[in-house]
Amino acid sequence: MARRRGNPNSVLELVRSRGFVGVTVVVLALVAGAMAKRWHANRTELLRREVLRMEARLAALRDQERDRRVRLAQHLDPVFLEKQIRRFGLDLGPPSEEQIVTIEEPDWLVNLAQGREPPATRGATDNLPKTAPAGQAGWPGSPALGATGRNEP
Questions:
Q1: Within a domain: 77
Q2: What is the spatial distance between Cα 51 and Cα 45, in angstroms, rounded to a whole number?
Q3: Are 107 and 84 contained in the same domain?
Q4: Is the model's pTM score more than 0.70?
Q5: Is residue 93 part of a domain?
Q6: Domain that holds residue 68
Q7: How far does Cα 113 stand from its chain's mean position?
Q8: Can you give the pLDDT of all 153 residues of the chain as single tens digits?
Q9: Last residue of some domain: 38, 60, 88?
Q10: 3-state helix, strand, coil in the chain (%, to 5)
């Protein structure tokens, strides 16, 4: 038996010892490597195109945002608002008499405004008087105030 020289795991040793099968394995390995390299190059190109497309979209969205901010600033400008009011024929001015609604303040609020204090309580809302003092309808907790705390007919 002849003694083998060199590294027994080398490609040349495989080709010499196995013949056609060895050559086939080496060729298949080279083809597989070339296909993997081509796949990787294609994948890289696809990702590069996608990144460029996304960057272009981002730039377009930034431009739209800038345009909208400018338009918003223009729409908030008092001169622009006055032009729009005239354009649409809106007569903004004091309300007419039939649009004015007079709201009567509750008596307890009027009393507070005049410097009179409400009846003494211990600080809890459940301790408020259940009935209004004589001639003082509308104090907090009085029957004249409903569950909402407003005067109700």
A1: yes
A2: 10
A3: no
A4: no
A5: no
A6: 11-88
A7: 45
A8: 455 555 656 766 666 666 777 778 888 999 999 999 999 999 999 999 999 999 999 999 999 999 999 999 999 999 998 899 889 888 777 888 888 888 877 777 777 777 776 655 545 555 555 555 555 555 555 555 555 555 554
A9: 88
A10: 60, 0, 40
